[in-house]
Amino acid sequence: MDLVGACKAFVSVSERGSFTLGAAAARIPQSVASRRIAALETSLGGRLFDRTARRAKLTPFGVDVLPAAKRVVQAAEVLEHDARRAGRRPLGLAVPGSCGVRTLARLDADARARGVFLDLRPAPPAERAEMLRTQEVRAALTAVPAEEGTWSVPLGVAGAKPVATATVYLDTLRPGRGQRTARRVWLQPEDDVPHVRDRIVRARDALGLRPSQVAVAGSLTSAVAEVLGSADLLLCPAAQADELDLHWRPVGGVVLARGYDVTAGIGDDADRIRTALAGPVARCLGAKVDA
């Protein structure tokens, strides 16, 4: 028996003195209200209404148990209210600081449409891990090798001016003899992680580029400023280059990609993001969105 549903029908009918009006107020068919009340009477062991009266008149037994039934209904309403409020409590999620305002806003809106309310906290990789460790957030998009992540974001290089070739090879950045300055590839803080930084550094050394030709900027803003004021290049995904109004090309000869997974203090939070928000997170990161 649905105890809460039966008590709601009982209280509603008793307050209106009519099975028809009480059922309508409870938003159920009259037949359903009658069955629920009959089941409640069987469970409690006594008649709640005098069926011989023209109106739905309470029996003495019904009068005695009505206050308790009202408490059951009130408690259920409080529980439902608290559950709705808990469901709307924002889930603190640390996200890459490289994500733009528009992409983060789209992620927030898509999550709300799926019944998930987010409190987004943009930060570099190390700060995201620390925010999770100190429980400042409930979950974080953590940087992992692309082959190990839930989401993979291919990286290329982008410059202020269009590039004639379809692919940029790092060896074309090798300075000529006697050339004092050389073009650099700037890494933003989001890519200052071993599985990205070390791979491009190894490629740099193998191709005989100067150590200074791969540099890590203190912020995305400073990295973009370096690129806008020179022929230097920014390591970034294609979507981010479009947002920054830079000209992007893939890198040849070396595979560079960001990888992301979800880490959370509660497993359910991680599963929720991987399933319900898989597509919106992918779009936010610039990763491939599965059909």
From TrEMBL:
Q: Does the keyword Cytoplasm apply?
A: no
One Pfam family this chain carries?
Answer: HTH_1
User: Which residue range or ranges hold the HTH lysR-type domain?
Assistant: 1-59
UniProtKB keywords:
DNA-binding, Transcription, Transcription regulation
Can you supply one Gene Ontology CC term for this chain's record?
Answer: protein-DNA complex
Q: Which GO terms describe its molecular function?
A: DNA binding; DNA-binding transcription factor activity
The answer to keyword DNA-binding applying to this record is yes
Highest taxon of source: Bacteria
Question: Family, per the entry?
Answer: Belongs to the LysR transcriptional regulatory family.
- What is the protein named? LysR family transcriptional regulator
